[in-house]
Amino acid sequence: RKEVEQDPGPFNVPEGATVAFNCTYSNSASQSFFWYRQDCRKEPKLLMSVYSSGNEDGRFTAQLNRASQYISLLIRDSKLSDSATYLCVVNLDTDKLIFGTGTRLQVFP
Amino acid sequence: EPEVTQTPSHQVTQMGQEVILRCVPISNHLYFYWYRQILGQKVEFLVSFYNNEISEKSEIFDDQFSVERPDGSNFTLKIRSTKLEDSAMYFCASGGENTGELFFGEGSRLTVL
Prior knowledge:
The complex is a heterodimer of chains A (109) and B (113). By secondary structure, chain A is mainly β. Chain A is 0% helix and 55% strand. In chain A, strands 2, 4, 5, 9, 10 and 11 form a 6-stranded mixed sheet that branches. A 5-stranded antiparallel sheet of chain A has the order 1-3-8-7-6, with no helix packed on it. In chain A, strand 4 and strand 5 form a beta hairpin. Chain B is mainly β and 113 residues long. Chain B contains no helices and 11 strands. Chain B is globular and about 40 Å long.
């Protein structure tokens, strides 16, 4: 089983749509969780951390289910500028982040 | 806004040649990393560096790879004898106390012919 697994997509959605991405991780000892965003041929950038109680940042909501080892990201009111690859990232309380393969989102007008 | 800078942005080399990729992390950060991303694939951890030594490395980071922080600002990745499969984008990253929030450089694209 992959350490961090994501549906690669692509998800093609119209502007204004709500879209949800899921991610599962294999190591139950994982300590912290993040969503990064990567634009085409660019570096990854932190979008948001994911907290146990769930957290929201504007149009973005992240959820964590430790029992199911599942993380989600919900984007409301999609904008054209949201088009990117969304990377689910897990930290085992070591010095390394483990990246999923990413889910590609394309928002169209 | 402080940023991680990497040079060169693109390097083309012949198989078997040595390559050095350079990075200047954010100045007050303590943790430094190299990741790589083969085209179309996921971002893979190579090595982390803290307190002037390697703190963790992946199985990709074999004897052909080394890292140095020679002068307190630069952080370099050396590949001693490049192979075709080393062709990838190499990202340097640095982080402060919160090691989940990493700041990545724009990457150095390495092409091995």
